[in-house]
Amino acid sequence: MKLLKYIKIITVFLVMLSLSYACDDYLEEEIYSDITSENFITQDNADQLVIGVYSSLRDVYKEYTFQYLGTDIFTSKSEIFSFSPTNDYFNLNSGEGLAVWSNNYSVIGKANSVISRFENQINWSDANLGARDYGIAQAKALRGLAYFNLVQQYGGVVIELEEAQTIRTDYARSTEAETYSQIISDLEEAIPLLLDDPSTGRISKRAAQHLLAEVYLTRAYTAEGSSADFDTAAALAEQAIGDYDIRSQSFAEVFDYSNQENDEILFAIQYGNSGLADDKSNNKHSLFMNQVFNYPGVNRTTTPYGVSGFGAMPTPFFYSLFADNDTREDATIHRAIIADSDEPDGPDNIVAGDTIVYYPKNALEADELAERLDRYWVYQPDQYLFGLPEDVPGVNYLYSLNIERTNFPIFKKFDDQDFNEDTDGARDTFVFRVAATHLIAAEAYLGAGNTASALNHLNIVRERATGVANEYTSITIDDILNERAVELAGEENRWAVLKRTGKLEERIDLYNPHVIDHGSFDAGVHLLRPIPANELQLSDGSLEQNPGY
């Protein structure tokens, strides 16, 4: 395999990579010179290697294609007749997804290096044995996370637990059951040695319990799983939730830019000014966006909305899931685009603060639509995927100014206050938060047949959003999936969740417009991703491709 064969992990290289990772005040950069891998690592600077593992997670959580496209709530950001291998499953092949594979193996390789060096190279004093164990525990937890990302997409993968020292070509895939066993082993060994409440940039005991709960929950649906896995997942989720009540702050407060380290966040990939590295390379704000600077009155460099960097948009079904009293809608999407600069030369003499585009939640009646169209563009809910509105008397000249071929309410929840035209930003990426843990618990209890406990966890999430207690009086897996959609859109791996629950094919056939129009999903093939072609070539035949590719 490319990564496992050709990367001889050199400590100096790891450390230089690690300096780009911005955690909290625990991260202090140091510049070293005239060093070798033999004389550099000491118990005083060994944590730099651990930080390097966290650094490599950034690339994992900036790769979105296999997480969102081809699902019920996200589709291609293009006209209905367009084709996309990862969204429509039309001609999906081994040329897709290399970054998913390679980025997760990068985490695994660096975690292996930490474990090996901490166990075998560093001379630890008795006073620092706790630091040794803590570093190893973090590496094992993050290695487990990376393998979980891989097994959900590819099934059984190559399990490599040693630091790479030589070039090899004899890597072979383990079974899916063996991969899950290794993930569980890593996390169970790590949890007792992790801290209860570090910075959100370090994986904590509760974050690892959240992850392990989802691992057991996912395995419960597989041929190798059992009903006991549902029970174990529910118990772990309860431990991860602890005594924290998500209703103590609103959904909007959780995503407030000034509140990124808050009690709901169990684990985050940190950016911005969290450490001396001052890294601002996050592109999260570019998700589910239009190039809003193509609208008149929206300035390319000062727009508060960001820029588009990923070719996906929410489906009409996603927007329909927000009830009228659901406060998450206003915190999740922009229904109006407001000018941030004057545009005096156009036909409408736009000034900053004017509405430019409006996306009503419900279709406007003819009279109200005509009144609004005198002042700005309006895109009704049935117009998001169909280019420019037709036959609008007297106002088609307005639409001729808009070069966007798909127009939809853009995302707000990831808005950044510090980004540039190249899409880089400084907002942290939330990986695990307690609201998601409640939904894991609800699903696990449902699988275990405990509907009362499942309802309790689902209703806690719902009550925070709507203010209505015990709104759900019955529960199905579709209720949980719908609640996950509005609570965790753009955060969870939606494709993996639909696959896990056996709902992927059903829901894309119902709700993904491009799949409905021309999808080619085949459950015998597309419930696993293709192993990247170049990895197969470099393995000299030792890796086997997934069926159908």
Overview of the structural elements:
With 549 residues, the chain is mainly alpha-helical. Helix content is 43%, strand content 5%. It has 24 helices and seven strands. The strands form three sheets. The protein has a three-stranded mixed β-sheet, with helices on one face. The chain has a two-stranded antiparallel sheet with strand order 1-3. Strands 2-7 form a two-stranded antiparallel ribbon. The longest helix is centred in the first third of the chain and has 26 residues, at 129-154. The protein is globular. Mean pLDDT is 89; it is low at 1-36 and 391-398.
The number of helical segments is 24
Strand order of the largest sheet: 4-5-6
Low-confidence stretches: 1-36, 391-398
Question: Which bin fits the share of residues in helices?
Answer: 40-55%
Q: What global shape is seen? A: globular
Mean of all residue-level pLDDT scores: 89
Content of β-strand: under 5%
CA-CA gap between termini: 18 Å
Please state the CA-atom Rg, rounded to the nearest Å.
24 Å
Major sheet size, sense and barrel closure? 3 strands, mixed
Number of strands: 7
- Oligomeric state, counting identical vs distinct chains: single chain
**How does the helix and strand content classify structurally?**
mainly alpha
What are the SSEs and their pairings?
Layout: H1 2-6, H2 11-18, H3 37-40, H4 47-60, H5 65-68, E1 74-76, H6 85-88, H7 98-120, H8 129-154, H9 176-190, H10 205-220, H11 227-241, H12 251-254, E2 265-269, E3 312-314, H13 316-320, H14 328-332, E4 336-338, E5 355-358, H15 366-373, E6 377-378, H16 396-400, E7 429-433, H17 434-448, H18 451-466, H19 477-488, H20 494-500, H21 504-511, H22 513-518, H23 523-526, H24 533-538
Helix pairs in contact: 2-4, 4-7, 4-8, 7-8, 8-9, 8-10, 9-10, 10-11, 10-17, 11-17, 17-18, 17-19
